[in-house]
């Protein structure tokens, strides 16, 4: 998701009206549908759409109430859940992971250096724990392997330095479950989704491979059946399996609600420099949130994609929130970034 961000931010000049970047996504990039939803500081919202909600039907792209899989857009919500539990003194951000998950983080084989007695909760939030990624080491077929076990057998990255890995938020979800006695899904619903008014956001149940409620169809190559080419993936993805690192279904309207309510200063507290290929120059990572410069000042955001959908969602310091998503994954991610920056900056 982060590839080409640097060139996008550096090279983005004056853009034509905000509808234009969406048309690029549905025209040049061949996405079925694209949407931007902006909510101003006073609560006024503007939605722009391009393309169709379902190929071959002529149906217009669904509006801001349409649900879709937000993938890594789930991470700020998990981070906010952890911060709420820290407020309740159930989690100490500077405590070692072993306090909450004794003996769980112990590496094996190539991952022998991984040790939960040396990793703090704050390191997980900031992606500086050294835990390796599991996603690029699994086959996309059910039953999936134990994701954490896969990660623990891989070589760790340098502890203390930024290295993005879904494993960090997988472990945070486990900590939330351990300290609340509730599944992280229920805990995040009670602590964040309900208080923030995110009524159309939900964690899919196991075996629920579709999208409930109003939604556009999503398209892409199924990772388990690449020989089929592009297919309709709307009811074919086991979103449940990706849990706290990327398992939520939400709407543009709800994501903007999150950004308007979320404690931005705390989510960005003690942010670390991002020194990893494919991220914008000068970017910093806080607790599930990235800060980058744009033509109209700094933006704070999260990005995510999985087959069939890609999203960038965030806000600025002034309280303007924006979400842009497409019903596929464009080959040129810069076009999605352009649409987000346009939504954030154009008045």
UniProtKB/TrEMBL annotation:
Keyword Cytoplasm on entry: no
Alphabetically ordered keywords of this record: Carboxypeptidase, Hydrolase, Protease, Signal
GO terms assigned for molecular function: serine-type D-Ala-D-Ala carboxypeptidase activity
Domain Beta-lactamase-related: 27-338
Family matches, as InterPro entries: AmpC-like (IPR050491), Beta-lactam-related (IPR001466), Beta-lactam/transpept-like (IPR012338)
Gene3D superfamilies in the cross-refs: DD-peptidase/beta-lactamase superfamily
Signal peptide location: 1-20
Region (Disordered): 36-59
EC number, as in UniProt: 3.4.16.4
Protein name from the UniProt record: D-alanyl-D-alanine carboxypeptidase
Source organism of the structure: Nonomuraea gerenzanensis
